[in-house]
Design goal:
Helix content: over 70%
Low-confidence stretches: 1-7
Shape: elongated
Mean pLDDT: 86
Order of helices and strands: HHH
Number of strands: 0
Radius of gyration: 16 Å
Distance between the termini: 30 Å
Largest sheet: none
Number of helices: 3
């Protein structure tokens, strides 16, 4: 995952300091975000923040899955 330019995006700089969660952690938090959005009862601002976090978590999960897929492909290529 490429690091963002902190001058261009201050939020990205803050996120670079946060360790990347495991696939399982990201998936569980994403499930919680979806539940909260589906339940409603949040302000527009809270909903937008949840949506943005959900997008981040979905990207993290996708990165983990792509990495696993690459590792499996390398293993099968080495055996064949």
């Amino acid at each position: 995952m490429a690091k963002s330019d902190p001058k261009a995006d201050p939020k990205a700089a803050e996120q670079d300091d946060i360790p990347k969660p495991s696939y399982e952690e990201a998936r569980e938090e994403l499930i919680d975000v979806v539940r909260r959005l589906e339940a409603g009862g949040t302000t527009l601002e809270e909903s937008l923040a949840l949506w943005e976090r959900g997008e981040q978590l979905a990207t993290i999960c996708q990165e983990w899955l792509e990495g696993a897929r690459e590792r499996l492909q390398k293993t099968t290529d080495a055996q064949g």
